[in-house]
Amino acid sequence: KIVESADEVWGTAQMVLKVKEPIAEEYHRMREGLVLFTYLHLAADRALTQELVARRVTGIAYETVQLASGGLPLLYPMSEVAGCLAPQVGAHSLMKAQGGRGVLLGGVGGVANAKVVIIGAGVSGQNAANIALGMGADVTLLDTDLDKLRMSFWRYDNRVHGLASSALAIRQ
């Protein structure tokens, strides 16, 4: 059945499937017994968490769907996108016109490439490293999993630096 308004969808559906978490303007549409299947990111959104509990909504967060192997198949693609976007957003923010220091990730003749430090060599970190390298940056990956760092050296043909993640390494 095709309906004409968001209110009608939320009001009649037993389950609502979304890509993004509900925004504040949608909270009034949530009701007891509704099953909401979406990326929820509850750790970052206390207000949404409180609304879901108060309205007795059953929330199923895409990011927590786990395979028997432990993999997170619905989190993976979002992590890829986040990793790819991070260096682009960072590069944009470094522009003088955006209030940044006027740094180009790839440098120019006579100017060193920017140094990019990525904390975590998981899905997002690997994708961020790939994009930052492609933009010409000098990339350092930090992770507590040395196997991930070793794999990064192989994957990026030794074009990334790797450090065991620690408070000291992050400060440096």
What is the CA-atom radius of gyration, in angstroms?
A: 21 Å
Helix content: 25-40%
Total strands: the figure is 6
CATH topology of the largest domain: Rossmann fold
Q: Please count the helical segments.
A: 6
Protein name: Alanine dehydrogenase
InterPro entries: AlaDH/PNT_N, AlaDH/PNT_NAD(H)-bd, NAD(P)-bd_dom_sf
Organism: Nocardioides mangrovicus
GO molecular function: alanine dehydrogenase activity
Kindly describe this structure.
Residues 1-82 form the Alanine dehydrogenase/pyridine nucleotide transhydrogenase N-terminal domain. The protein is an alpha/beta fold and 172 residues long. The protein folds into 2 domains: 6-64, no CATH class; 78-171, 3-Layer(aba) Sandwich (Rossmann fold), CATH 3.40.50.720. It is built from 6 helices and 6 strands. The chain has helices spanning 6-12, 46-54, 75-93, 123-134, 146-155, 167-171; strands spanning 15-17, 35-38, 58-61, 115-119, 138-143, 160-164. Strands 1-2-3 form a 3-stranded parallel β-sheet, with no helix packed on it. It has a 3-stranded parallel β-sheet with strand order 4-5-6, covered by helices on one side. Helix 3 packs parallel to helix 4 (123-134). The model has no long low-confidence stretch (mean pLDDT 95).
